[in-house]
Design a protein that fits this description.
With 675 residues, this protein is an alpha/beta fold. It is built from 20 helices and 14 strands. It has helices at 116-119, 128-132, 156-161, 216-231, 257-267, 281-287, 296-299, 302-310, 330-343, 349-354, 359-362, 365-376, 463-475, 482-492, 512-520, 535-538, 540-547, 559-568, 575-579, 595-603, and strands at 125-126, 202-209, 237-244, 276-279, 316-321, 325-326, 418-420, 425-426, 452-453, 459-462, 497-499, 653-655, 658-662, 665-666. The two termini are 46 Å apart. Bound molecules: 2-acetamido-2-deoxy-beta-D-glucopyranose (4 copies).
Length: 675
């Protein structure tokens, strides 16, 4: 493939090899590994039959054709083919969703946190049908407006391969590709990793496991992600399922290719088999023996680190969980994330990342950034690597000038090495175990080493960041918890870390002023070091209920209700169903004993550590009665998650009996827990 490597002008080249990083939260385990030689698999001829005039009627809400995404790395073909066998850039494609851009008289909702305009996100709506019709939702009904795709004969690996140019040195094919993971010592890729150049390509790694039960909604979700992020971007992204092989003695998959492929057949729906990469925890043990921990709750990034090591043809690696959902075009959203991350400068990226950006309080992102700079008087808390003994050769920015002399030029226009979906916290600020249960968990150094975290453990990390973590863990075995891995290594190495201000709705919402107080600790000029210091991050155990529920969190009581409204609002209405009493058994709601403390925090101008915490150390159980909260609800969830009233959330819209959702990245959607 045509590599176009050095755009890393301001970077100091580190030692060779890689380290990796990052987050998750599920259930995996073990490790070992080696590599096979890549066998460049010849790309298959692309059999498109570009038929005109036979397309079934287009979806109902169609006031603008899907815009095909633009950026196309040089190694890619000018177009890709979708699952129905047609070019995906056909203006009448049935493979992409057609959103509604203008919902009669309804203003597009303003998120509690983050911003559509600042991120450059499309402001569109979709019904559940609009969202998932192209991917098979209700395809067996007479009213299905599209031609049915033959999912059983769709091979997503082959479709993604067809986006690639078939240059002979390509080792990137997915279809019929031999497994690359190998135990340490069993061979390597014969790659000189210091010579890897930029490819313009990004991997999306979906974390799953071999016993995962794929619901219909999971199928629609994965099909949507591949079609929108990989095919419609002309291959800028490539989707993989990184599958934890849940088998006590499953190390054989890394020694026997036939058994590996057999295990994939059992673990993954047929259409996704060629995009699946299977690993066994013995692979982690093999490579990270010195780390002496492979369980996902502690070391969820290890498999991604190994993935980046064995699949180094990508500049960036997204790690997403199966319960994340894009409620609109995933490719457009990821491209907007990418562009935002590149646009913002390196200086004060660590400070900005600590704040929960609330447009109603902070103004535009520019105003937000300028206010932080004003507090900092042009300086930066982090300027170059945060030095630690264990990272002697940082790979990131080592500026040769003072921060005050850089007028936000350094790093502006360069890809971010870490894109986070939640704020960046500093571990040493946690006072109590209950506020972050992993707070003292380290190996290989003392707890005085500066560490940083962002949860949940879904993020995008650059290849060089993942390689750097890999190298540290492999060679010296140091470790921090899953959620701290990517941010800590990124800052130790002097890399640009960016928190994406992606739209995140709290609902029912509370007083914005109080939310700003608990997330950020006050106004942007409150702290001389420019770093937010709110109770929500650092006194989580007593304040958690107050920031919830929201559409993006590591736990959320809101996400399933959003989906239930969205799906229900898409069904033909029958009077009986509409009038039926709500018969769902909820969780108990508990009396709220927290208002007093909350208001103390919300109204206080005192620094966080001066606010006395009279609560018990256990999680608060509260029914969500804050000053701006709604009345107690008849059904709820475990109280710390926040109760969700039965009404349609205010950021969704109902028109003529149909329910529309704005474009969001949502988590967690618990399909796998539903009956
Ligand atoms: C939305 O529709 C209204 C009424 O038809 C129209 O005035 C407005 O220009 C439309 N806006 C967009 C962005 O198309
Ligand atoms: C890898 O590439 C770097 C930079 O080109 C070079 O200095 C180094 O010697 C190479 N290593 C090997 C093992 O070829
Ligand atoms: C940042 O702050 C410095 C010092 O107050 C000031 O000179 C500079 O103009 C500011 N830059 C921006 C972009 O606000
Ligand atoms: C509630 O659900 C139960 C079990 O499905 C059913 O037996 C009962 O009749 C329902 N009650 C109402 C009021 O719908």
């Amino acid at each position: 493939m045509g590599y176009d490597f050095e755009r890393t002008m301001n970077y100091r080249q580190g030692r060779r090899g890689g380290r990796t990083t990052w987050t998750l939260a599920c259930c995996l385990t073990i490790f070992l590994g080696l590599l096979l030689l890549f066998q460049p698999t010849a790309l298959l001829p692309s059999p498109f039959h570009f038929k005109h005039g036979v397309a079934p009627p287009l979806p109902v809400y169609h006031d603008e054709p899907p815009r095909v995404l633009r950026t196309r790395p040089a190694s890619l073909k000018p177009f890709c083919v979708g699952p129905r066998g047609y070019r995906i850039d056909d203006p009448e494609t049935q493979d992409l969703p057609y959103p509604t851009y203008n919902l009669s008289g309804i203003d597009y909702p303003e998120p509690t946190y983050g911003s559509y305009t600042e991120l450059g996100l499309e402001q569109s709506w979709m019904t559940f049908s609009q969202r998932y019709h192209p991917y098979g939702y209700r395809e067996n009904e007479d009213s299905y407006p599209l031609s049915k795709a033959e999912w059983s004969s769709v091979n997503w690996g082959r479709l993604q391969d067809q986006c690639l140019d078939s240059s002979p040195d390509s080792f990137t094919a997915q279809a019929d590709a031999p497994p690359r993971f190998r135990f340490m010592g069993d061979g390597d890729l014969q790659l000189n990793r210091t010579e890897l150049k930029s490819t313009g390509r990004q991997a999306i790694v979906l974390r799953t496991w071999s016993t995962y039960k794929y619901t219909d909604e999971d199928l629609w979700n994965v099909r949507a992600l591949i079609t929108e992020a990989a095919l419609a971007t002309k291959g800028q992204y490539t989707v993989f399922l990184l599958v934890d092989f849940k088998h006590e003695t499953g190390s054989f998959i890394h020694e026997n290719d036939a058994l590996y492929h057999e295990a994939i057949r059992d673990a993954v729906p047929e259409e996704f088999r060629d995009i699946a990469v299977l690993f066994h925890s013995s692979l982690q043990v093999s490579w990270y023996e010195k780390v002496n921990e492979v369980r996902p709750i502690w070391q969820i990034m290890q498999p991604l680190q190994l993935f980046a090591y064995f699949y180094p043809e990508f500049d960036q690696y997204w790690q997403l969980e199966m319960d994340a959902r894009f409620t609109s075009n995933a490719g457009k959203m990821l491209q907007a994330f990418d562009q935002f991350g590149a646009k913002v400068p390196y200086k004060q990226s660590r400070e900005r990342a600590s704040w929960t950006y609330i447009p109603a309080v902070h103004g535009t992102y520019q105003e937000f950034s300028e206010a932080i700079n004003a507090t900092m008087e042009g300086k930066a808390t982090v300027w170059g690597p945060v030095p630690i003994h264990e990272v002697p050769n940082p790979i990131g920015y080592v500026p040769n000038m003072d921060a005050t002399d850089d007028n936000f030029k350094l790093g502006a226009g360069e890809p971010a090495d870490l894109l986070m979906l939640s704020p960046l916290f500093e571990v040493k600020r946690f006072k109590k175990y209950e506020d972050w249960v992993f707070k003292d968990w380290v190996l290989g150094f003392t707890t005085s080493v500066p560490r940083f975290l962002s949860a949940p453990a879904q993020a995008r990390a650059s290849r060089r960041l993942l390689h750097a973590i890999h190298e540290s863990q492999h060679e010296i075995g140091i470790r921090v918890p899953s959620e701290a891995t990517l941010p800590s290594w990124a800052l130790w190495h002097g890399l640009k870390v960016v928190q994406l201000p992606h739209p995140n709705f709290q609902w029912p919402t509370r007083s914005i002023r109080e939310l700003n107080m608990i997330h950020n600790g006050g106004k942007l000029d409150r702290f001389k070091d420019g770093i937010a210091n709110g109770a929500a991050p650092y006194m989580k155990s007593i304040i958690e209920f107050y920031e919830r529920p929201r559409t993006w969190e590591w736990q959320s009581s809101l996400v399933d209700p959003v989906f239930n409204h969205w799906i229900e609002g898409d069904k033909p209405k029958t009077p009986a169903a509409a009038d039926a009493p709500d018969n769902e058994t909820g969780y108990e709601t508990v009396e709220d004993s927290s208002d007093e403390l909350l208001h103390k925090i919300g109204d206080s101008d005192k620094p966080l550590h001066e606010i006395e915490d009279h609560s018990s150390t256990d999680r608060f159980t509260a029914n969500g009665k804050g000053s701006a909260s709604p009345q107690p609800q008849k059904r709820g969830r475990p109280a710390a998650l926040g109760d969700v009233p039965p009404e349609l959330p205010s950021f969704m819209a109902e028109v003529d009996g149909q329910v529309f959702c704005p474009g969001l990245l949502i988590h967690p959607r618990k399909t796998n827990q539903n009956p």
